[in-house]
Each structure stands twice: as structure tokens, then as C-alpha cells.
Amino acid sequence: MAGLSPQVTNIIIILGMMQVSKRIPFEDPDVLNMVRALYVVSNLLIAGIYIYVQLQINKKKDLTTLKYVEPAPMGSSEEGKLVTTTVHAYDSQQIKNSFRSQLMGVAMMGFMHLYMKYTNPLLIQSIIPFKGALESNLVKIHLFGQPASGDLKRPFKQSAGLMGGLQSGPAQSDKKAVEAAERAGRGGVKDE
Length: 192
Fold this sequence. Notes:
The chain has 192 residues and is mainly alpha-helical. It contains six helices and three strands. It has a three-stranded mixed beta sheet. The two termini are 39 Å apart.
């Protein structure tokens, strides 16, 4: 699966796990508790990865200036806003967004499992978020030690998910776009 995109591998995993989950006897309390434990361990591993990445971000404390033009909200007639920040602040914000996303997933799964009594998604949600955490740009840079160039260059390109076509586009960090935004006086407030 090395040549496939993350979205394609996610679909393959989901379809495969749906077939596997049909054969798992969730009515048996022992089996159900093992799947619940797998889900909890998966989320603890993800939290551990994100905490480690946050510690690495704080340890490196890269104060290199990062300028980019944040795209305007979809449907807005405004132009993008210039953002001036540091690599440390950018990475910290990205890891906070990852934590928030993970907590939202846990809350939704808790609602679906505890309130609506769905059990099959526990198995799928034990694998897909963990895979996503390992494929995130910050984990690739700070955990696996890959250089921050190419696809890992900041600001990160947003992954084209199901709603990717509805978004207003990626942040622009090229010199021409940044200079145009500076001349137009859009933003320029330093985020720290």
C-alpha cells in the first residue's frame, strides 16, 4: 500500500474492517470489552504521540519567522490575510488542532457507542485515527525526523478530504503572494 494515497488506504481499511466486524460476536461481553480496550489503547497511543511531538516542538523552539497568506473564508469577497508567525507557534497551533480533532472523534464515538449502542465503529475508529496520527506532517517531522521540505514545508497543504473541494484553497507562502499581501496591508499581525 506504499504507493496509494492515505484516503484510498483509509477506504480499503474501512471496507475490510466492516467485513471483519460482521464476523465478530459483539454480543459476547468479553469480546466487546476487548474491542473497547483496543479503542482506548489506540487513543492513548495517539495522545502519547501528540504529547511527544509537543515536547519536541517546545524543545526545538524554532523561532524562524514564517510568513504566509491565509486564504479567505469560502464565499467571502475578501482577499487572504497575511500571517506572520514563527515555526514554533505554527507547529504548536497545528498540534493543538490535532488534539482537538482527536477529542472530537472520541466524543462522537462515545455518543455513538454509549448512547446509540453502535459497536462496529469501535473497531474501525481504533485503526483509522492512529493511522492518521502517524501520517500527520508534524509526526513525520518531529517523531520520524523527516526534513521539513517538499510536502512537509510549512505552511502545510491541507489534505484534500471529502470536503476539500469546498474549501477556499491552500495557504500561500511564496514570496510574491506574501509581498502582495504586505503591500495591500491585509493582516500582518504577528501571532505568538
